[in-house]
Design goal:
By secondary structure, the chain is mostly helical. The protein is 73% helix and 0% strand.
Amino acid sequence: MSAQETRPALLQRLKDPNDAQAWREFDLCYRDLVLRYCRRLGLQEADAEDVRQLVMLGLTQSMRAFAYDQSRGRFRHYLRRVVHNALNRYMARAAQGAVRLETTLGQGLPDLADPDIERAWRDEWVRHHYRRAMEAIRARYEPRSLQMFDRLVDGRTVTETAQEFGVSVAAVYKLQTRIRDHLRAQIARQVADEDDRHGLA
């Protein structure tokens, strides 16, 4: 089955809150993004997990009335709103004493229109796609090549990496360029697929 055939099929499946497999796929893809973002805002691990569950609950409810419309924009903006709604609900429950909130958020969430908050979400979204892309890249390269690339990502120079692995500087440059280009292409595919697959503003 092609990706184009798979996307609308998955959308239809997500409209059914009882389709456990579809929701597992969605959760597997986005849970790390949501958790890391919540932790970045100051929530402790347990609180972040509670918010993630509220996000999934909110999505199961909203997806029932979902209508695919690719013209409505980027999925990451929609998901950000869903996450912020869940955060606000969780903070309200904490204020009422329904849950014990262990967080550095103090009296509540920062202004969600604050550019720093938008930047934090965008940064986590970029890192999310980088992690996913690297998983795909690692399946395509030999361990030794990946070790060299990891050294470069960690801050080693091309010369230092070449010396460590006993290869030429030109070979390291070539490997770096090849993996970097594949990584960029993979991220571009993921982002295009994400927006095409969800079609939400």
